[in-house]
Amino acid sequence: MPRPGHGVLLASILLMSAVKPAAAQSDTLLVEPGSPLVRGGSITVHSSRTVLRAGGPEGEPRGTITNFMEVGDSAGRGVIRFRTEGEIAGPNGRNTYTLRQTFDRETLQPLGFAAAGSAGRESSYRIDERQVTGWSRGPGQERQPFAMELSRRAFHAGATDIILGVLDLRPGLVVRMPVWSPGMPAVEERIYTVGEEVAVQMGGRPMRGWRVEEWSSRRGAVIGTMVAITGVPFMETYDVQAPDGSRSFWRQELLTLDGAPVGRQ
Questions:
Q1: Is residue 262 part of a domain?
Q2: What's the whole-number average pLDDT of the chain?
Q3: Which of 23, 44, 57, 160 could form a disulfide with 174 if both were Cys (CB 3.0 to 4.6 A apart)?
Q4: Residue 229 counted as domain residue
Q5: DSSP letter string over 181-248?
Q6: Which one, of 211, 212, 210, lies nearest residue 191 by Cα?
Q7: pLDDT at 97 exceeding the cut of 80
Q8: Is the model's pLDDT at 5 over the cut of 90?
Q9: DSSP labels, 99-132
């Protein structure tokens, strides 16, 4: 599931703190766009919905993130497109937004982002290898042009569960990958430590899942623990502990292409 990586949308629930995980160097993978280990061609078209709760799995719902995937072509290049419709509780009521993301069909290299929210913020970015160009504007403001050269090619920071979902995960494996999203000052490395295998029910059928700890080199902290799964929608839960001690818990369910829950009794 592409998780919104746009800084102004969900920064408050993506900031957490902890300690760097220890890892055996011999069981570490470095993956980046173009790696032969990452291939998106087998990803099936799907939709999903994630409910965000405050305080844990039984907490008060704070918002939803609904993703709709499609495949297509852009100037002869196969692409994956995700449209994300979000609703998040804010200090002045509930805010809605639409996020559109485009990825290379095979390598999962991000190609573009466009976001528009009910609070009046808009942005659009195009990514060509390491070159990022586009614009953003706040409520009532003019467009501000944006140009940036990334230090290296990187995956989308809000969609790393997709990368994990196409890898051959196993307990003890450590996955390193460069990531970037609009709102981040630079490319950073994320480190994912795979823990125990767990049983997951998704769409009314059993799937293999793994507890995965996500660590940010830029923040020097664990920024979440997810249950990653093999196959769509790639993540069952995402558990976040914020620096102020508050907790946010995300749970995802698979939807039919027209938006109905799959396998719910």
A1: no
A2: 89
A3: 23
A4: yes
A5: -TT-SS-EEEEEEEEEEEEEEETTEEEEEEEEEEEETTTTEEEEEEEEESSTT-EEEEEEE-TTS-EE
A6: 212
A7: yes
A8: no
A9: EEEEEETTT--EEEEEEEETTS-EEEEEEETTEE
Residue with tokens 């800084």: 7
Interior/surface letters 153-191, b for 16+ CB within 10 angstroms, e for the rest = bbbbbbbbbbbbbbbebeeebbbbbbbbbbbbeebbbbb
Q: Give the tens place of pLDDT for each residue, 12-67.
A: 333 333 344 444 445 999 999 999 999 999 999 999 999 999 999 999 999 999 99
Could you tell me which of 223, 239, 252 has the C-alpha nearest to residue 56? 239
Give how many domains the chain has, as a whole number. 1
In a domain? residue 70? yes
The b/e string for 63-89 (b: 16+ C-beta within 10 A; e otherwise) is bebbbbbeeeeeeeeebbbbbbebbbe
Range of the domain at 183: 7-255
